[in-house]
Design goal:
By secondary structure, this protein is of the alpha/beta class. Helices cover about 35% and strands about 20% of the residues. The chain contains 10 helices and 16 strands. The strands form 4 sheets. Strands 1-2-6-3-7-15 form a 6-stranded mixed beta sheet. Strands 10-11-9-12 form a 4-stranded antiparallel beta sheet, with helices on one face. Helix 1 runs antiparallel to helix 10, helix 2 crosses helix 4 and helix 8 (about 345-360) packs across helix 10. The two termini are about 35 Å apart. Bound molecules: zinc ion (ZN).
Length: about 425
């Protein structure tokens, strides 16, 4: 028998397509809906038991005290580590096991794992149980090939990514699981398409703006002061000044889709006056409060301070000019933008592997929204982290979500090649 090569690994992965599909189906059949965090523990244990049989050291870490953690809904994470023949770097594959709610419009069982026309269907198929399964098959094939591997390979299944990752990657990163020297390179198999390497994401700032008024009888509004009209003035300023200013800013971040390659702001909600949800007639009152929630996404070229300052300047300007204008602004959530070096080890080896496996050049992209890379970067202080996985980005969170079987096989090959190169490359 000839000595094993990387081709041995590729052949093993190709031969395990049925196993890859079955593994994806099994993972989809755990209805790990978040919130509330259903079936986390059995799903984590399923992954742990599989990898334990293959010689991994398996640990379960519950995100105790993190948002939503309870005995009914424990935030159970699993981390499995396989140690090679001699010392070396550690390549870690991190996947979130939680999925979002089902939503309407499904034509297949969301937790059935149905296979049809070369696709596996189900909630989480694309985001991101297909990616998790591909990474498991990739790592197992590397180990089983008989290639001599230095260093260590890790696979984690973590919780709560869809709700911020506080009981998952953030919790683990705070305890050293995502820092050197334990881990050196991280690949997160999020669905960014099989030929794209995602090197980072834009920043986020969520805030609530409240305008204040004074209640009065609706037939004599001049005796009160309408918080809704004040909010209207805020909207006008946003339309005439903020949106054009944001649209004029362009980024070196290769964000996809292209519409997100600039600063954006969504107005999540506006409420003012009487509460909704009552069937009867309203009473005539001038609104004494109006609240708006904004979701501002920003670029690596902007600072959070400037982003907040820009909105605050508009509100302060109104307070100076507009009679009776008073406001409060509250931060709800914020994440700094993150961008890894595309020439760094994990990005460049993954791009090279894409070219070898798929025969086309890899595209470097950034994600419009955030994912767990933010915690690896900010808390773990580990910069060599990317997202790379088989799912189609646009299908995430949609009804009839699916992942392509060919894409999973190809991405498993890419992951195995990249991991091998990272473990064996000459280190500077
Ligand atoms: Zn995801």
């Amino acid at each position: 028998m000839s000595a094993p090569t990387l081709q041995t690994v590729m052949d093993l992965i190709e031969g395990r397509t049925d196993e890859l599909v079955a593994l994806t189906q099994d993972l989809i059949r755990f209805p790990t809906i978040n919130p509330p965090g259903e079936a986390y523990r059995p799903c984590a244990e399923y992954i742990g038991e599989r990898l334990k049989k293959r010689g991994f050291t398996v640990e379960y870490v519950r995100g105790e005290g993190s948002p939503g953690d309870s005995d009914q809904y424990p935030r159970t994470n699993v981390i499995a580590r396989w140690t090679g023949s001699e010392p070396g770097p550690c390549v870690h594959f991190n996947s979130h096991i939680d999925v979002v709610e089902i939503g309407a419009g499904w034509t297949v069982d969301p937790f059935g794992g149905e296979v049809k026309d070369g696709r596996v269907y189900g909630r989480g198929a694309c985001d991101m149980k297909g990616g998790l399964a591909a990474s498991i098959i990739a790592v197992e094939a590397l180990i089983d090939s008989g290639l001599s591997l230095p260093g260590a390979l890790e696979i984690s299944g973590t919780v709560d990514e869809e709700s911020g990752g506080y009981g998952g990657v953030a919790y683990l990163a705070e305890r050293g699981w995502f820092s050197e020297p334990r881990v050196n390179h991280v690949i997160i198999p999020e669905p960014l398409n099989v030929d794209r390497v995602c090197i980072g994401h834009r920043g986020v700032w969520w805030a609530e703006i409240e305008t204040k008024g004074r209640i009065a009888h609706g037939s004599m509004p001049f005796l009160g002061d309408s918080a809704i009209r004040h909010m209207g003035a805020v909207m006008e300023e946003f339309e005439s000044r903020l949106y054009p200013a944001m649209a004029a800013r362009h980024s070196d971040m290769p964000v996809v889709p292209e519409g997100a390659r600039q600063s954006t702001m969504n107005i999540n909600s506006i409420h003012g006056g009487q509460a909704e949800g009552f069937d009867g007639l309203p009473a005539p009152c001038v609104a004494d409060s109006s609240r708006m929630i904004i979701d501002r996404r920003f670029l690596i070229e902007e600072t959070l301070e400037d982003v907040k300052g820009e909105v605050k300047a508009i509100l302060d300007g109104l307070a100076a000019q507009r009679h009776g204008f008073r406001y409060e602004m509250r931060d709800l959530f914020q994440v700094a933008p993150s961008m890894a070096d595309r020439d760094g080890p994990v990005a460049s080896t993954t791009a090279a592997a894409i070219e070898t496996v798929l025969g086309r050049k890899a595209q470097f992209v950034c994600s419009p929204g955030t994912y767990d890379q933010k915690h690896v970067d900010r808390i773990g202080k580990l910069k060599d982290c990317i997202a790379y996985g088989p799912g189609v980005l646009d299908l995430a969170h949609q009804p009839d979500e699916w992942v392509g079987i060919d894409d999973m096989t190809n991405s498993a090959k890419v992951m195995a090649r990249a991991a091998y190169d990272l473990l064996t490359r000459k280190r500077g």
